[in-house]
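Ticket #4471: structure output looks truncated?

Reporter: J.K.
Steps to reproduce: submitted the chain below (75 residues) through the standard prediction queue, then opened the result file.
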Amino acid sequence: MENPFESGHIKNYLLLYVSVVVIMILFFIASSLFNDVDEIDKKVFNTEVKEKSTDKNIEPEVNASSRFKLLDKAY
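Returned output as attached by the reporter:
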């Protein structure tokens, strides 16, 4: 295998590298130009305060027969 620095082929490698970078830059510019950015609407939050019902007759449900069984001893 020949040394590319001695045989003059390094120009071809540099040209290949530069061409790949230029193509990447062109694709980036093209994608940013044709990318349509929609205008974002401002979000409006509901500022009305709802009163909580004060019904104290409602009790939470207690499930006596649970699906899970606790261990007798904690490890």
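Triage note (M.O.): checked the attachment and the full token line is present. The CA atoms of residues 56 and 62 lie 16 Å apart.
Status: closed, working as intended.
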